[in-house]
Amino acid sequence: MNAVAGPVTSRHEPEDCYGSPLHCWVHGVDEPHKGTAYRICFECNHVYRSEAELVKAYNEGQDEANEIAKRNGWPLIRYRKKTARTIYFCPLCLHDW
Ligand SMILES: [Zn+2]
Ligand SMILES: [Zn+2]
Ligand SMILES: [Zn+2]
């Protein structure tokens, strides 16, 4: 049994925080939050602390996709959003929620 007192907020392997329900698979940290998170991805455990944070992550993903499309001469089909109401997946691990 590993003796970890609390969330490990520096990058680490999941074995090093065995049992932590906060381990984010995208960032390799235990995301600290006090039950007030806007949304927690049940797939990668990333914590979005506010709606704005989720929208920002989403838009960054869209910008990235557009950059790739531009480079390849593909049509741009990605749109930025202002609210999280119609964001149906985790922008970091791309899993539906
Ligand atoms: Zn961890
Ligand atoms: Zn996720
Ligand atoms: Zn994370």
Report on this model:
It is a single chain. The protein has 97 residues and is of the alpha+beta class. It has one helix spanning 51-72; strands at residues 23-24, 29-30, 39-40, 47-48. The structure holds zinc ion (3 copies). One zinc ion binds next to loops.
In short:
With 97 residues, the chain is α+β, with helices and mostly antiparallel strands. The protein has 2 domains: 1-49, no CATH class; 51-85, no CATH class.
The tally of domains stands at: 2
How much beta, percentage-wise?
5-15%
Order of helices and strands: EEEEH
Q: Main beta sheet: strand number and arrangement?
A: 2 strands, antiparallel
Mean pLDDT: 90
What small molecules accompany the polymer chains? Answer: zinc ion
Poorly predicted parts? none
Q: List the strand order in the largest sheet.
A: 1-2
* Total strands: 4
General form: elongated
Q: Kindly name the structural category.
A: alpha+beta
Radius of gyration based on Cα positions: 16 Å
Q: What is the straight-line distance between the termini?
A: 32 Å
Helix content: 10-25%
User: What count of helical segments does DSSP give?
Assistant: 1
Feature tags:
alpha+beta; 4 strands; binds zinc ion; two-stranded antiparallel ribbon; 8% strand; 97 residues
What is this structure's SSE topology?
Blueprint: E1 23-24, E2 29-30, E3 39-40, E4 47-48, H1 51-72
Antiparallel strand pairs: 1-2, 3-4
Bound molecules: zinc ion (3 copies).
